[in-house]
Amino acid sequence: MKKKLIAVCILLGSGSCYADVPAPYIVNYGPSSTVVEVLDDDLIHISFRHHQNTQGNTTIPHTEMVFKTDYTGPALYEPNADGFRTQALSVRIDRENGCLSVVELQHNNQQSATICPAIYDQTWHGASVQNLGIHSVYGLGQTFAPIDPNRGAQVNGEWLGTGGFGTPDDRGNTFSSITYTDGAYAGATTPRLQFPVLYAVGEQMNYALMLDSKLKNSFDLSKPWWEIRNKTAPETNLYYMSGPDLPDLRRDFMELVGRPPVPPKKALGLWISEFSFDNWGELDETIQTLRQHHFPIDGALLDVAWFGFKHAWQNNSEANPMGDLRFDEQAFPNPAAKVASLKQDGIGLITIEESYVSKQGNYHGENYNGMAAQNGFAKDCGSNNFTEFNNWFGVSGMIDWSNTTGAAWWHDHVRKPNIVDLGILGHWTDLGEPEDYRAYSCYQAGDHAQYNNVHNLLWSKSIYDGYVRNHGQNPQRPYSIARAGTIGSQRYGAGLWSGDIGGRLDHMNLHHNAAMQMSFAGIDYYSSDVGGFWRKGDDKGNRDTAIAPGAGYSEDEMYSLWFANAAWLDIPLRPHGNNCGMPGATGNDCIVTETSPALIGNTTGNLSNLRQRYELIPYYYSLAHRAYQYGEPVITPMPFYYQDDLNLKGMADQKMIGRDILVAGLTTQFAESRDVYLPAGTWYNYHTGEQYQSVSGVTLPQVNQWIEAENRNRVPAYARAGAIIPMMYVDEQTKDVFGHRQDGSTRNELIVKVFPSESASSFTLYEDDGSTVETYDAQSRPHYQVRETWLSQNPVSSGVEILIHAAQGSYAGASSERNNEVRTLVAATEKVAVTLNGEPLPMLADRQALENTGSKGWIREGNLISVRTGVVSVDADKKIVITSEPCSSDCGFAANLPSLMIRGTNNGWSTTDMVLIADHTWQVDTTFGAEADARFKFDVFGDWRQNYGDDDADGQLEASGADITITQGAGSYRITLFDDRNTYSITKL
User: Is-contact 74 83, C-beta < 8 A?
Assistant: First the structure.
């Protein structure tokens, strides 16, 4: 929405250029009106006033979902008798019926839609939209379609193909069961949430339409005229957004409803959770097990046991602590000291809270009485009596978050002293649909119909506002994860998770489809209960449709596949489950459910997939900054960036991480491979470096997802040509996203992975302290102390120039110097030279030498070139030039041996040739199986007359020496021999 107003005014003359929103365009017809505000050239605000002829106030109201209200108007506005024109749109309004016909000037003057007011019956009003060539629709919200036992769960699919969107009851946001198409219960209960914005995509056409209503709504897209129904609405208010493509539409939408603040950096890591950690000892044991097995971890979520709820699960009990928000010191003694100790060890905590407050509680109703004094609870409509709730959480009141005075009191007097001031990192808002409600309740916002769908939005807002209000005392970032919400939740630092999902891959597949829609709706931080919340005995795959034929259900396999996907796609990465969480539960309600990736499934694969996630933390965190600054999605479905490729229509089982990494989810238990679709362009296998040219889209058949050599389920991943991916160093000592280490050492090097391209490209690395807000502006938008480092690559003659530019800005605790490693690919038959700032760099022996503290030089591993700059100031430019030239098989490298091969148990003692990759440096990649005596030797001529082994197992070769033993088990290995010093190295890949 960038405009050059002065230039446009000069060109067009007076009367056509606006620096403010022009007066609304009004058409009265019969007893009704259509009112249109032109907020920008590509954004109009429409009000269908179904029973009100507009003569007076023409202001169109907006709900709590909307953030931006200070638009400055279009650069061009030309009203006429039939409508108006802007730089982007030509709109005609029918004076007989109030319908708008919208022509997109950015799309070859095509008409995109006709939008009409509609009265369906006495209850349902809304709008009717003519489908003019639209082939797919995204957004609208979270639901879980019934599972077809024969065809499986709907992982792929958009709303037009399925007929539309609606939640299953008459209030909108609700908590309801996943079912089969025959209506049978499918083993879980999850939220259905309305986020009423649709993105319509056609051939060379797209637009977005947001229904700005808190009321129950539905979108019937099964007819030529779509029906947007808005329950009991006296008027229907819409925002129409225009743009050249989906990324532009989403940017405009995020500007309208608010972009997500940058979450705490720790939110990007692994968080352990279960229903429920019963005491500090149980939590400590889980953390200790992860650390013993070298899993990085950033935090834990504490379910209802933290405030004593499991000890008091009795309806009407005076001991019921729901809403007390104080640690149960029987199970969690000395909480202040313990929270501080965990924080010192790199472990953050997030505590659950609900909107229900017990009338008695462990503290004699102190919190209930305090909130009652603020009139802070839902009331029976027409009276001053607080609505009484009597459910599994006891006799309670429900907080009215639309009462801003009460919401502020609750934060400052209950949440802040008991949670925030202790150093708790974030908030877990549960039951926020709301799960329990009374239709006869009223709130400061109105009756329940006016309140239901903004309940969790306003709850998230109360948390956010509390942090803003108390920023002078504590600059900690506001952060929460919510089970419910609506448009706008993201601007209050809230991510969403998909609820109490079942421990089955068909449920996970439904989650992946929901994630596609929620990304379009503005939710960048979306996650699941990894492994499934409900893993009851009778749910274990009896009708799971995501199991390969002939294979039975395996909880271990299910968990590891889900964890592999979530390590790419979930923020936060949070395994969770009902681990016998209900007090007194027996039988199927009391299943011991492991959630820690160190204790269930293929733990070796879990660890590999988790470390890969941590390597990419700098990339994810930079995307988080871009999401806040520019409204770009962190994780998004394929159609978002490739809307013109109809092969990708509705595809949710492949996602993009940022703009540059494509991942293909693992959707079926015991499948060894899956097909992967690559849209047009040049792509590289993220794991192996293999290049693919896709002219107009290509399907790669049977891509391996089970990697025997790595003993893991590996999500197929591909990087775009020109992708620049900042990474961090991760090994068995890595503790958390900040790179803290178990042995107390420091590894703060910046690693940059560059995928070759014929054209220049760049990426900006964003760094900050990961936990605080510097200031808030007048609109409560946060500002951070940030250091930005521009990374670029540019093809040059016979090679590539890679620049790590001088950093701009700084923050408290920022390192002033560090080593930098650049990794890129060359052809295997090319001879390579490397310079740093014009000076040649030496080739080092192997990766161990490269990764030594302060190292400076480069190595070659097959077609991968890795370069280190040595420790240098972040304020200096680092220009690395890698040049290569085609050469023969030995590339002219110096060598003391005429040839070299390995012979061993891996090849039945036959020969496998090694390749001379640099002066005196021979290398081969090979695989050893699980045999206990895996071993090999080097042979020069292939006939044993000149062979080498290692008598002392010290890396030094002896002629006719002893067999060299493989000690790290089955897997792929890179073996390197240096024939100028008779040494060798073995690296497990």
Answer: no
